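Quick start: what a row looks like.
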Amino acid sequence: MKSWIRYFTRIDIDRDYDLWVRLAENNAQFEFIDDPLGEYYRHDNNVSANLEKHLRAELAMLDKHFVRDRGLKYIFLKQRRLAIAQYGAGRSFHRTGQHGHALKKFFRSLVMWPISVRLYAAIALAVVGLILPKNK
């Protein structure tokens, strides 16, 4: 089993997630631990603050692990999942007040999967954020 338990080095951020996905793909057994095992501090300079880098890592994970060559159903499922990744990045940009970047991600999501009601609401909120910026 140790021969395949390695980090996927092309992915800078989500190496642990990649490891968990590969373990699950190989039928590893998991158990829930109800105790916190560590702490995580977010600040402007840590890797988690780089939203574009996170999106690239997520898209690389989807490309690496999503089922391939399984017919039309899986093509649609992957397209939907890619749209969700763009939507999630848009939401993160919106939360940080970067409404222009949020709109770009929302529109990419819209092109990929236009049948999402929440996406239209998110676009409307991002437009409002651009037009009426918060007063500080």
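That is the whole record. The first helix runs from residue 15 to 25. The mean pLDDT is 83.
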